[in-house]
Amino acid sequence: MMNSKSKKTILLDHGSGGIASQELIANIFLKHLDNSILAALEDSAVMDNHPGKLAFSTDSYVVDPIFFPGGDIGTLAVHGTINDLAMRGARPLCLSLGLILEEGLDLDDLERIIASIAKCSKSAGVPIVTGDTKVVPKDKCDKIFINTSGIGIVAEGVEISSTMAKEGDMILLSGSMGDHGITIMTRRAGLTLDGNLASDSAALHELVALLLEKLSPGTLHALRDPTRGGVATSLNEIAAAAVGLAVEIDDLAIPVKTEVRAACEIMGLDPLYLANEGKCLALVAPEQAAEALRLMQSTSVGRNAAIIGSLKAGKAGQVILRTSIGGSRIITPLHGEPLPRIC
Amino acid sequence: MMNSKSKKTILLDHGSGGIASQELIANIFLKHLDNSILAALEDSAVMDNHPGKLAFSTDSYVVDPIFFPGGDIGTLAVHGTINDLAMRGARPLCLSLGLILEEGLDLDDLERIIASIAKCSKSAGVPIVTGDTKVVPKDKCDKIFINTSGIGIVAEGVEISSTMAKEGDMILLSGSMGDHGITIMTRRAGLTLDGNLASDSAALHELVALLLEKLSPGTLHALRDPTRGGVATSLNEIAAAAVGLAVEIDDLAIPVKTEVRAACEIMGLDPLYLANEGKCLALVAPEQAAEALRLMQSTSVGRNAAIIGSLKAGKAGQVILRTSIGGSRIITPLHGEPLPRIC
Q1: CA dist B180 to B58, B76, B272, B275, B295, Å?
Q2: Which residue in chain B is spatially nearest to A95 when comparing CA positions?
Q3: Do A58 and B130 touch (CB under 8 A)?
Q4: Full set of structural domains in chain A with CATH
Q5: Is the pTM of this model over 0.90?
Q6: pLDDT (tens digit, 9 = 90+) per residue, B231-280?
Q7: H-state helical runs in chain A
Q8: Is the ipTM of this complex over 0.90?
Q9: Does B142 sit within 8 Å of A142, measured CB to CB?
Q10: By three-state DSSP, how is residue A167 classified?
Q11: What is the model's pLDDT at position B6?
């Protein structure tokens, strides 16, 4: 119906704002993402407000390949922005969806991605309420780029920020690290490895809500999701924001799956720098750290959570890794770009 | 500092999330866009809420060329999303900024665009509070794509929507049409024409706020900004949403600049279908239409406003143009894509 070739593809016309755009919206977007706010197709969505502060986040997704074990560019786009909101203690309210499509993109691939976005959005309880689609000529982008932005509500009294970190805070990691990064990397290198490498793409807002509900008020100080740049870079951001303090982590305590470690050894990579898409670091007052760990482990996304270190006085701004042989080394933020288009 | 060639360009490393990303943020983004919420560099911005409903909008900008008379991709990105919020009667509160950069992009061009974004954002009083930057390898995008999303607050009692349109409503256009579309088009065709063709890129939220403040409550029914697809397509959207009603417009009443009309004649184009980036259509109850026109004309962005038609009972869903020779023709939404990457 949209063009005469047997394999239907995106045409420039689909980005015109005219009749072909309307067909695309009706036949693919509203088919999967239908909700009354989006379906109004106005210039912006209007919805009820809620008491509390506003959280606002944006992320663009350019991952290559667009489909991979454990997810696709659509799951990343939904989970990533939900997680960015959750990292400030916000309850995610809604998402926007901005698509940039390459002329010639397979319409079946587009529909598969939109269906995936719809599934993640419904499962997370965070609707897509507004959107935009642009089409650029062939070779002016690569298949599909997605931007999601999100609004969340931060309840009164909740203040989660790396600047709230305090000496003695325990550092929790909600699960094994490097799963997403190594999955994309081996996939792109064409490597076939034993085990079941898969992206950890997942939404963390329910885990965060559980921590906020159950921990003593004011004991959850900071959250970060270690995406690009990995755990090493996020810990450096925490150390930079936690004035006068150093991060100390224990190599043996950090959960890494056997197959991820093996793939890292083959490829000469350090899992500390690999991207994650469904993990968070949490800084918790020491008296509530064990309870925070128990709560994380009670969730499906946090079942492999671990306490990996603490915030100490000392070399302010540094991240120090205690190694299994009793030594220590300084962990710097990511230098260089080991893998463009990881997310 | 960022690379050793004499002309500094974007490297893949600038999108890594690591040290080069931090340098880009500090040396270009925070230099121009500095505000305390953005400068916190957390996973999401957290800010004060306001009473009223929430408006939320998103748009990606892929315009080619990225610099043109009257603006650049940055001015479009700020004005476009502010306008989408304003079209629901919202007061824009803040914007997000998502950048997708091509490896090799001239850093001076990037800085020029960021400076332009900063200038428009400050002038409009709508800060950029959160952002994200991705870099893709050369030839995987075209220089720079920008997504802006925005949050606005709709005051209690304000309900602006095409579904609120009523029989007898007068249709105002806030100024001349086609300026942006024809500017990009002649630029890309390499045509040099007499006159001063320039994009109309401008923010409309202050004009909308003035109408909401001064008109009798409930008499401003609907607003649309005729971007892609032009006035013709926006009027068709209004006619489709205004149940049971037809749009009737008067050819002679629609403001078109002489140089735009001349360029359209040379290129065989109809200005009704050309994109605008600083114009709106307003549907106003007839008893307040003259006052709405006076208010529009009192602003710099609306000084050439005109009443161009009205909503009538009759051929529901149709847009009818009364021509200068006494005839009439049906105006359909845009078919085909006369100009990809217009915005």
Answers
A1: 20, 10, 12, 6, 24
A2: B56
A3: yes
A4: 12-154 (3.30.1330.10), 162-330 (3.90.650.10)
A5: yes
A6: 999 999 999 999 899 999 999 999 999 999 999 999 999 999 999 999 99
A7: 19-24, 30-33, 36-39, 73-86, 107-124, 179-189, 205-214, 230-241, 258-267, 289-297
A8: yes
A9: no
A10: coil
A11: 63
Chain A residues lying within 8 Å of B57, measured CB to CB? 43-45, 96, 130
pLDDT reported for residue B4: 47
Q: How many CA atoms lie within 13 A of A89 on its CB side?
A: 26
Q: What is the 3-state secondary structure (H, E, C) of chain B?
A: CCCCCCCCECCHHHHCCCHHHHHHHHHHHHHHHCCHHHHCCCCCEEECCCCCEEEEEEEEECCCCCEECCEEHHHHHHHHHHHHHHCCCCEEEEEEEEEEEECCCEHHHHHHHHHHHHHHHHHHCCCEEEEEEEEECCCCCCCEEEEEEEEEEECCCCCCCHHHCCCCCEEEECCCCCHHHHHHHHHHHCCCCCCCCCCCCCCCHHHHHHHHHHCCCCCEEEEECCCCCHHHHHHHHHHHHCCCEEEEEEHHHCCCCHHHHHHHHHHCCCHHHCCCCCCCEEEECHHHHHHHHHHHHCCCCCCCCEEEEEEEECCCCCEEEECCCCCEEECCCCCCCCCCCCC
Residue A95: φ, ψ to 5°: -125, 155
Enter the DSSP assignment of A25: I
Q: How does DSSP classify residue A191?
A: -
Neighbouring CB atoms inside 10 A of A313's CB total 10
Specify whether the CB–CB gap between A88 and A223 falls below 8 A.
Answer: yes
Q: Name A67's Cβ contacts closer than 8 Å, sequence gap at least 6.
A: A73, A109, A112
Render A109-137 in DSSP notation, one character per residue: HHHHHHHHHHHHHHHHT--EEEEEEEEE-
Phi-psi region of A242 (alpha: psi -120 to 50; beta: other; left: phi over 0): beta
Tell me the sheet residues that pair with A312: A246
Say how far apart CA B162 and CA B235 lie, in whole Å: 10
Could you give the CA distance from residue B227 to residue B276 in angstroms, rounded to a whole number?
A: 5
- Put simply, the chain A residues between 49 and 108 with a CB less than 8 A from any chain B CB are 49, 51-62, 83-85, 87-88, 90, 93-94, 96-100
User: Residue A166 phi/psi, 5° resolution?
Assistant: -130, 155
Backbone angles phi, psi at B112, to 5 degrees: -60, -40
Cα A319 to the center of its chain, rounded Å: 23
How far A171 CA sits from the closest chain B CA (Å)? 18
What confidence tens digit (pLDDT) does each residue in A111-154 have? 999 999 999 999 999 999 999 999 999 999 999 999 999 999 99
Sign of CA dihedral B104, B106, B112, B115: positive
> How far is residue B135's CA from residue B112's CA, in Å, rounded to a whole number?
18
